[in-house]
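Fold this complex.
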Amino acid sequence: MTTSTSSRTDLYVEVLQFYARQMQLLDGGAFEAYAETFTEDGEFRHTPGRPAAVTRPGIVRDLHEFNRRFDNDPVVRRHWFNMIDLNPTDDGMIESTFYTLVVTVRPGARPDIAPSCTVHDLLSRQNGTLLVRSRRVEHDQLFTQPG
Amino acid sequence: MTTSTSSRTDLYVEVLQFYARQMQLLDGGAFEAYAETFTEDGEFRHTPGRPAAVTRPGIVRDLHEFNRRFDNDPVVRRHWFNMIDLNPTDDGMIESTFYTLVVTVRPGARPDIAPSCTVHDLLSRQNGTLLVRSRRVEHDQLFTQPG
Amino acid sequence: MTTSTSSRTDLYVEVLQFYARQMQLLDGGAFEAYAETFTEDGEFRHTPGRPAAVTRPGIVRDLHEFNRRFDNDPVVRRHWFNMIDLNPTDDGMIESTFYTLVVTVRPGARPDIAPSCTVHDLLSRQNGTLLVRSRRVEHDQLFTQPG
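Structure:
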């Protein structure tokens, strides 16, 4: 195995572990800790038609505002990521494109599994730590155009 | 890459492979082989309000009893694990926290995808082999409390 | 860590990355590029009762024919693979057995998540590149026999 293979292996697994911890933080309501997984100037575009949240404080504010809809809704949400395709860029960043499903659990109801999205991340390493430079969530629903 | 990074990479992938084989055994009805993926004194707490099954023979007995409900139910079940967060502990074990969905397939019906759970494993290596020391399954449904 | 452990780690991650790219190609309608992830003499058996598509041109033809059903159906499909169990064979190939769900998104509707399948791949390395020698998709529905 070349160093290059090992490095790619290490990176892929680091991203799996990073996403697991990151999304367990988000699903657990730890918005500040979630925002810290972005770069200082990070961008997070999670909903079509809604402007990107920018900077860590901006992301925290946006998440508090977005999650107000669940204030009287006793909900548990779980973000599932899968089929992660990593592509290092020429300038040392990593493009990550993957599928997402959101599992929503409410009292006495079956889990609701929606929406289905494709996420485009740009990841950056700063002082050895992997961070999200930008995250853009595309809802598959928007791409269902009459043929 | 440091040895430490390589070791963490190897461990993460070993856990992915371990879970895949372990749950394909369980879903295939190989309860004895599933129980052997636990330590001799292993604990398995899979359903809220039901006491933990302990030791390998105890886990086998519990699975036979629990699965009696499917005796006249021609069902296929698939356990999906995802978003695996690994944390080595000071005493050489590994905490693993991850999301689970159970896919249930019945004749002529759409797959039923429920429940959504969060699983807390404590993994231990014995003679080079990864084993589950304890597994506790938390049903997300129980955490949907009125706000 | 032995070389053997590293190699197995590298292989497992290579398969994860390979499947992610391969299925994003298929879901994106890039049938020619998908067919190129098979060996020249590759076999693809995706639907019970339908003969295997063989060779890359045969797979492309089969996919165009199979997907004609979506011509007037503005659909987005996402293939999810999970619980991947890899077993190297004595003759240098790799058996891969894993779970699959297909997420289907249509305008104004909830995502439909079906069918649930188990896939049996035989993977082969040619000139350093991982390829599918054969893929057989088993629908879990067919295994729900009255008990």
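The two ends of chain B are 47 Å apart (CA to CA).
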